[in-house]
Amino acid sequence: MPTHPAIVVIPTFNEAENLRRLLPPLLELPLDILIVDDASTDGTQQVVAKFQGQSERVTLFARPRKLGLGSAYRDGFADVLPQGYQLIIQMDADGSHRVADLRAMLDFHSDNPECDLIIGSRWTKGGAVQNWPKSRELLSRTANLYSQLALGLTVRDSTAGFRIYRSELLSKMQLETISSEGYAFQIEMTRAAVRSEAKICEVPILFVEREFGVSKMSGRIIREALIKVTKWGLLRIIGR
Ligand SMILES: Nc1nc2c(ncn2[C@@H]2O[C@H](COP(=O)(O)OP(=O)(O)O)[C@@H](O)[C@H]2O)c(=O)[nH]1
Ligand SMILES: [Mg+2]
User: Fold this and answer.
1) Phi and psi (nearest 5°) for 37?
2) Taking the CB of residue 63, how many other CB atoms lie within 10 A of it?
3) In testing the pocket of ligand 1, which one of 8, 10, 13 has its CB within 8 Å of the most ligand atoms?
4) Measured CA distances, 184 to 162, 171, 227, 231 (Å)
5) What is the per-residue pLDDT across 201-224, written as a single tens digit (0 to 9) for each?
6) Quick one: which of 31, 50, 88, 139 has the most CB atoms within 10 Å?
7) DSSP reduced 3-state for 232
8) HSE-CB for 217 with a 13 A CA cutoff
9) Residue 87 falls within a domain, yes or no?
10) Measured from the CA of 181, which atom of ligand 1 is nearest?
11) Which residues of the chain have pLDDT under 70?
12) Domain CATH code at residue 25
């Protein structure tokens, strides 16, 4: 049985500096932590090992090479789902997702247990981004608008990677059918949650752009999202 009712799954690729800062405040919350690392070369796994020495609540899932964000989450979820947690949390390692906001999201869950999925949202009333160039904000806003129009989503931040899932929902969502890797993974998961008739709630967050390390966002990731959302939009038109 897990020691806590919630576990946070954090994918990492070269996030040593960021993890060093993130893990101490995160460990103050009543949750377990799974780091899914893709053979980082900057000492990320050594940082995890150091925290494992201090707490049994930290686990490392080491993968052989950079295999993508989507499959990191799929592997992480497959690992933790059978363990009996009530809540499975998604969070970036790079400091963009603040522990203070996770606290607020967990409080929201306590007050609103009927929400199957809670999204830490930049684009709902009260949400914001800090230190993002205009171009990155435009990309995120456009991706969300296109997802709303093409897929009929009412979620305002369907590309968000800061989420609390009820395990029952993740079990229903047939994760083996989810195939996206980048940005599109978040949209595909939102779409799958809607198709599983989940109650989705958004809590405003302040998303702070990373100070250390580099973003893994790329043209390939943007193209994947554009192509997949268009495909799902066309499937929607023919009723599938
Ligand atoms: N394990 C794993 N983690 C990844 C991969 N790509 C990105 N990440 C992690 O996913 C999180 C979000 O990635 P990031 O590059 O910050 O994306 P951005 O916030 O959209 O610019 C960070 O914790 C990254 O280290 C990957 O291929 N494998
Ligand atoms: Mg980031």
Assistant:
1) -110, 135
2) 17
3) 13
4) 14, 20, 9, 12
5) 999 999 999 999 999 999 999 999
6) 88
7) helix
8) 14
9) yes
10) 27
11) 1
12) 3.90.550.10
